Fold:
Amino acid sequence: LTVTGVQTCALPIYGKPHPSYQYDLGLSVSQLTFEAMHRGYIAHQMSGFDHAKISAEFTLTNFDPIVVVAIGKQGDVEILPEQAQAREKSLSVRKPLNEIVVQGLPN
Structure:
């Protein structure tokens, strides 16, 4: 389990958190995810967590947690409850590109 975040204390040169911290954080989490997959692990990114509990559990006094990433080996789908099994086994349907890209689609 990894918790990534941003320092709550201001950097002297900016007087506040670095202006591109969200970009930097997203890039670092994506690279962590790729590296985990390269090594045969699954990385599950989560933003819906109790920020206060995470801060307390990991003693994050100078950081605001932004995302939690669980890293581990893929388990057997058969150990899940039936409803979760069905969700895991169902085909993932994606929207066509022309529904989500507004400009620059290839011909």
In short: The longest strand covers residues 63-72. Residues 21-38 form the longest helix (18 residues). The helical segments are 21-38, 51-57, 82-89, 97-100.
